[in-house]
Amino acid sequence: MKNWVSHLLTVQKLDMRLAALETKYRTIPLEKERLKEEYRAVGEKVISLTAQVRKYECSIKEKEMAESELTEKIKKIQIQSATAKKNSEYQALMNEIASTHAKISDIETEQLKDIDALEETKKALLVAAEEKKAAERAAKTELQDLTETAEQIKVEALSVKKQRKEFASLCEPAVLELYGRLREKDRTRQWLVALNNGACANCALKITPQTLNEAKKGQVTTCDNCGCILYDPSAPSDYQE
Ligand SMILES: [Zn+2]
Q: What spacing in Å lies between the alpha carbon of 34 and ligand 1's midpoint?
């Protein structure tokens, strides 16, 4: 293999690694945001359930008060009934007592529903509070991991850039410049590709006999179709010429 090919292949390998590192680095803030969002959602569930518990507790208390007011009312009517002079007056008071009892019974039924709902909500709140604690622990660990990953990426990127500089200095300026122009189109793909049975390994187009001949000699050639720089892996090395 020609020196220009092996040097440029190394540069390309380092560029691909750098592009992968950059892509990974860019996802880190999004990952952090996703974690915070998840944690926020669990926290909101606890807030909402706490509000529901308070609502049921208030409702139960209000019904207790309404019930004791009605019980007082019955006592008063009973006292009043003892002094009733007419039978019709007495009967009206008895009817009022009966209807007040019915009201109390309705309130008690509603109150039992509130008590059941309160118990269920309290259980759900306990579960949600545990979930929140677990989410908090997980988020903390994951955030720490992401921060460490970001640091590792920075360190590795610096080392890759340094190596790239060294290998780029070994490349012929003309071919390095051509490669650089191609890379401006897309930094995430390979622009130096091998010949595969007389065809471009990138787009599979058969190349002309003249280009093939040049490639076999180890000259810099490009694909007419996709523009990739082509090389013949079996071309003699510079030392064998
Ligand atoms: Zn091609």
A: 40
Q: Do 66 and 166 fall into the same domain?
A: yes
Task: Report CA-CA distances (Å) from 27 to 21, 34, 159, 161.
Answer: 10, 10, 21, 20
Q: What is the 9 CA–ligand 1 centroid distance (Å)?
A: 17
What CATH code is carried by the domain that includes residue 132? 1.10.287.1490
Check whether residue 96 and residue 141 sit in a common domain: yes
For ligand 1, the distance from its centroid to the CA atom of residue 23, given in whole angstroms, is 26
Distance 220 CA to ligand 1 centre (A): 14
- Report CA-CA distances (Å) from 24 to 10, 18, 31: 21, 10, 10
Asked if residue 75 is part of any domain, the answer here is yes
pLDDT of residue 239: 65
* Rounded distance from Cα 215 to ligand 1 centre (Å): 14
Distance 4 CA to ligand 1 centre (A): 19
pTM above 0.90, yes or no: no
Low-confidence ranges of the chain (pLDDT < 50): 241
